[in-house]
Every structure is written in structure tokens, then in C-alpha cells.
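Sat 14:20. Reprocessing the chain from the morning session after the first attempt stalled halfway. Input below, unchanged.
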Amino acid sequence: MLAASHTPVNQVMTARPMELLHMDTVGPSRVRPIGGKWYVLVIVDDFSHWSWVHFMESKDEAFEFVHDLVLRLRNESGHAMRALRGDNGSEFKNDHFKTFCHSQGLEHQFLSPYVSQQNRVVESKNRTLVEMARTMLDEHRTPRKFWAEAINTACYMSNHALCSSKGIWTSSNLADGVFLGYAMHSRAYRVWLLDSGRIIETCEVTFDETMPCTTPGFELVGDDEIGTTIFEDDEEDVGVYGDTVPAVAPEPAASLSEDDEGAPVPSPSTTWEQPLLDPPVHATGPAEDVGEVTTEPQPSRMVQRDHPSRNIIGDLNKRVTRSRSTSIAHFAHSAFVASFEPHDVGHALSDANWVNAMHEELENFERNQVWVLVEPPPHCNLIGIKWGEDGVVVRNKARLVAQGFCQKEGIDYEETFAPVARLEAIRILLAFAASNEFKLFQIDVKSVFLNGFIEEEVYVRQPPGFEHPKFPNRVFKFQKALYGLKQAPRAWYERLRKFLVDQGFQMGSVDKTLFLLKHGKDLLIVQIYVDDIIFGGSSYTLCSKFFEQMSREFEMSMMGELQFFIGLQIRQIPQGTFVHQSKYTRDLLRKFEMADASPQMTSMSTSTALDADEDGKEVDQKVYRGMIGSLLYLTATRPVIQCVVGLCAHFQASPRESHRTAIKLNLRYIKFTPEFGLWYSADSSLSLLGFSDSDHAGCRIDRKSTSGTYQFLGTSLVSWSSRKQSSVATSTCEAEYVAAASYCSQILWMLATLRDYGLTYERIPILCDSSSAISVAKNPVLHSRTKHIDVRYHFLRDNYEKGMIDIVKVASENQVADILTKPLDLETFARWCKSQIAYGYVYVVGEGVDKALIKGEIEGLKCTESGLSS
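Finished this time. C-alpha cells:
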């Protein structure tokens, strides 16, 4: 018999605050706090999730606090309390509680034995408070004896944070208001309370980012007000104006010219906005101080002078007013704001270029039939949307983004996973294309997520600043996906997958981003990475036909030959393909102010042994973590630094000066070799070969070993890893065996991928420099030294017996994976670099390794270069 799974979503079981209180105790703590109180009593209101904590020396003190709290809450809140719920502990299940609950008319509820899920409200609160307290103590390096203070602070923060439980917004004194500005004589916000109409100054404000920037139903200026602005200004004055004007349209000026008599009057729902430069000037009457009048024709320009932004969000049929500013003023203004990045929607709507960008995005929605305007259904989960800027490198580009954090699982979305191509899959394709001497091309799908269909009913508010003038209260129902929706990536992948399969493509057996089309002897390969698609094949006709098919189905742009992909710079020439990150390297050095640092010939000195260094000088965590993350991305083409970066990454929680010095040594090394990368020769074969190595107890903190592996396609290095093992190895034999077993799974993945390419292999050689590890893999011997090894690592022996792999001995001096397990001295490091990294188009992966030696040790390997040659 199977037990029913418990509901993962916390549900509110009550209709009013203080109706049901959950109780639980935490402790005793392992660290004596200040005051000597070892236990924590946690009480949570079921409806609002407001919580109380009380610290106790013993559990017997729980009743006294609960007794006083219940009486106080009844007097303060006025709500009728119905029940108390706790576990079967003696602090709750006793005569004191029984008598008190009976006298107060309270139901005393107990949990079923061993079913803590019934008390999930307070159990979840316990975990939240403890994790918040631990985070605060770790962040500020506070002694553990202050844990009680940290939990008390965490409880206060939790109570005063805007939270949601089944859509119920709760707080101690939550009130809706409108942000007006900042207080002049205190550090507080000025807020207009909507219920009372009062203006208060307070710092306890939580901004609801899900709401649009306008407040429907409120008029800033009434119908009886005179004029078009809040403050009366002379129309000749040039000054700074606010972002918005009343939602009620002003009366037309009495001095309109004859040309304006037939202009339609805007509807009362029209939203207005002040012009950024100057107020409009009517056509009647001479203009003053306008300078010399010229008769030269006005040159064309991108600034839409005759269409200020107030007409964008107002009535489109209203007449256009003209600005009195000169052409020079427009050019000066354009030069000033040409590259500015707006910080909010109001700021963006003040610039014509950004307004045009927003219109392009909305027109794209209409063209792709992304949504329809409907009446909001009752009890629907309404999601907000906001404008996002994609930068101004080429042109102003605005993107409308759904606020996916408002979505609820099971209601607004189900599955969200969408596969993306792995880096080793990209490198395999590059090596395969270079060996077969065909070019790779790249296409980019425009507005990619707008092409995916969604099955759930999702409703969003209208875009801020672009509400429908006749139906401002309607909402949009999605027919397709939108940026920000949790299911958008999966919806796009499913749309593209179905289209490619319908066109005759076969999906990879293990790599679901790989699609292949075979036409006779010709092969077309497609690899997808969200909206970036790279493809190539032995037939140029197939490539052209594929692009035509994609262009008919999706709106896209042809990028030409593959040159830049997910940060990788790719150079395809007849002799092969060179992959590097030189631009990223230079940007990285400038980012961390190392562009002028002295170069270093190695990535880490062998004399440097990193440990926790608790007495060392602390350094900035954010900068240190930024260095680690940036260098980890650089390992996409620079494997020789992966081991050292991984060692430094262990100390991100509390970095010291010694750790920063070590990571800066890596930056100085890449300063010495900014142009290094991977070379995939056209003369390389496609034989699959791997190296596996490990150090022993190299980590000085936990004495765990580090595994290092390389995988080659002929002379092309396509995959590698440097990873600390999960358990402590008691011998070098065990460390090498574990490394080879972990490596075996990667080889099998590559084997399945290459079979999709049409390549077949018999036994894949794994080169290992440990004779004892090879013996353990080939024979069930040395029981006393291997009986404790986890059974999952015997996966290596199983695949050897099946004939999938072969384990071959290689001399230690020819073990190229050694550089991924520990720092090397300068001479050894230089030799290994020459065997792995290509500089420019001269060095080839594999140079420096004894070709004849390896060829003699790999029996039956059908490879002209023996897997490694220059």
C-alpha cells in the first residue's frame, strides 16, 4: 500500500486572523546563547502567517507565554480565536493547556503521530527563521552565541515583509497608497493613503512592482478645474514639466486657427503627457524670440518632431500640435539623449526613439497574434508585465516582459524545462565540420519566445503607457508565449522541435538539441541554443533549403558564417577552425583592472598551497566571486586554468588576501596568453580517445582528490573536466579508479552523440597512468583495497566487460590530463600547454606528446594520428 503524497503547496485553512495558532518548539541548541535560553517557542497565525518567538531555558515555560499571548491577542485584535495546534510534546500536551483551553473555549488540536506535515505551517516557519538567522550570522561573521538575536531579528523581518499565502496579502497594518515623493526633513517616503486620503511620511513601504504605474479610477484633476496643467505657467516660458497630465482631456484653446477647426476632440479617457522639450505653440499669433527665419528645406531626421509622445498614449485621431523649438534644438536634444538608457517606463516615454521601439514590439505582438484583449474572468490570476530595455548598441530595442514570478505552478504553468546545447556538443560539431571540410552558418530567430504556443490560460494586464483608450480595464489573454513566462522557453523548444521533425529531421538520441537530416550521402546538422541556431552540412543545397524553410515558418535573420556564438569567437579557414575568447579576455582584464598588470607564465605556482587562511585579511566577496565566475566561463576554450580556478572557487564563502592573490595570478597568466584557444585541424581524424588522471588527497582542507579528464576527436580537444571527488580516497589506486569511472559516463555520452553523426566505434581507449587502477577495472582483484569503493564506480568495470571501453596504460610523463589535477612547475606547465592549446594557427592540439610511444601502447586503435599528433 502506498501513502498519498502530501500537498506541496501551503494552503490557508482559516478565514480570519487569529482563528488558529500553530505552535512548535526548536531546540535545544548546540551553542549556548547569551542569556542561557536553549529553546525557541515559535507560534504562527494560520491566516496571516504572522509569527511570534519566545526563548526559554526549558520547555515548561511554553504554557506561560501562550497563556499571556492568547489573552493579549483577544484584547488587541478583537478576533475570535478558535483553536491551538501543536505536536504531542509534553510542553503542549499537559493539564495546564487542557484547563486553559477549556476555560477559554478553545479547541486544543494535536498532530497524528509521525505526521509532521500536519504542522507544516510552523515547521516551514521554523526552517525559514533558522536559515535566515544562519545567513545573517555567516554574512557578518558574527559569533554563534548570538543565534537567538538573529532568530528574533529574522522573525521581525518576516513579519514586516510583504508576503502572500494563496493570494492573501498580509502585514501588520497593510494599507494601499501611492508614492508621491521624498520627505524634506527626514529619510522617509511621502505616501498618499487611498482609503483615508491622508498624506503620511513613512519609511516602512513595500513597492508593488506587479502593478502598472498608473492608478485606474482616480483623477488627478477634476472636470471643474481650469487649464491644462496643475500649475498655471505662461506658455512662452520654457521649463521642466512633469511626466503626466490629467487623465481628463483639456478643453480646446479658443485661439485655434482655421486649419484646426475640424480637429476631433479627444475622449475623456485620453491619457496625456507633457512634451520633453517645449510646450506646444498654437499656429495663431507671431512667435517671439525665434531667431532668424530661414527658407532652407529641413533635412530629414529620425526624431519624430511632429509626433510627441503624448499622442502615442492618447487618442490617435487627435490633431498634432507643433513644437516651436528649432531644428538645431532638436538635433542638440537628439545628440544628448541618443544613447541614454531609461530607468523606467515614464522615462522611456519621454523619448521618441524609445516610444518607436515600444511600438515596434507591440506591432510584433499583433503580427504574431500573441494575445487577444478580453474581459478578465472572475478569480483569474492576473500577471503584470513591464518594459525592459535590450540596450542601444545598434538601435533602441524595447521588450515587453511578463512578470513570471506572479505565476502559480499548476495553474499558470506545468512543465518549464527546455534543453540547450552543451558546450561540448558545440565543440564536437565544430571538430566534425572542420574534419569534413564544410562551413557552419548561424541564424537568429527574432522574438523567439513569441513563436511558442502555450496550453494554459494566462492573463496579463495591459502594458503600462499603452492602455486601450476604450477598454482600459480589459486584460490580454495569451495565445502564445511571452518573455518572462516560466513556460516560454519550453513552448518555443516544442514548437521548433515539432517543425524540424515534420521536415524530416531526426533528433539526437541523447542530445535533444541536435537535429540531423540525411539525404542520400549528404548530411545536414542543426544545433539549437534557444534562439541561436547553427547549421551546416556536406551539401550547400541542403543548407540553402533549410534556411528557406525556417524563413517561411519564423521571422529570422541570417548571420552568415559562424563567427561569434555564446561568447566564443570562431574562425573557419580551409586549414581548420580556431575557437578562442580573446575579446572576452581583454574585457575581463579591464573589468578587474588587470589590463596593465605584469604577465605571468603559469596559472599557479607549485609552492602555493591554498587553505582556509582564517587569520588572513578579508577581501570583497562580490569582486572575488565575480573573478571566479568570469574565469570559469573562460574555461570554455582555456582548459589549463580550470583546475586552479576550481581550487580558488572553494573559498568564495570567506575569501582572503591569499585567495585573491592566487586568482589574480590566473588573470596575469591570461594577460600573457590572450590569444590562446582551441585548434580543430581539417587534417584530423575523428577517432575517439580519452585521458583520465587524478591526484591523491590534494585538498588540504578535506583531503579529497581531484579528477581530471580529456576527450579528443583525433587531435581536436572537445571535452574536459576537473572536479573534486565526493569521497576521500584511501590510496592512489582508488583515486585513479574513481576518476576513470566518472570519465566513463562522459565517454559513453559522446559515443552516443557521435553515432547520431554516423560514426561507429568498437572499443574507446581510456589512457590511465595507474597500473593498479587498470587491474581493478579489468579484474575483480585486490578485494581488501577495493571492497569499500562505492558500487556506482564499478560502472567502469561493467562497461569494460561489455566491450564498450578499453583501459590502456600511459606513461606519467605523457599523461596530458595531469594539468587538470594540480598546479605544475613552469617547465612541465609549458610542455602541457603546447600539447593542449593552440596559439594562433600554428600549434596543434597534441604537439609535445610522444606519438610513437602512444601508438605502441594503444593496440587496435585505427587512427592515423594515434589520437594525438602535430
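The mean pLDDT is 75.
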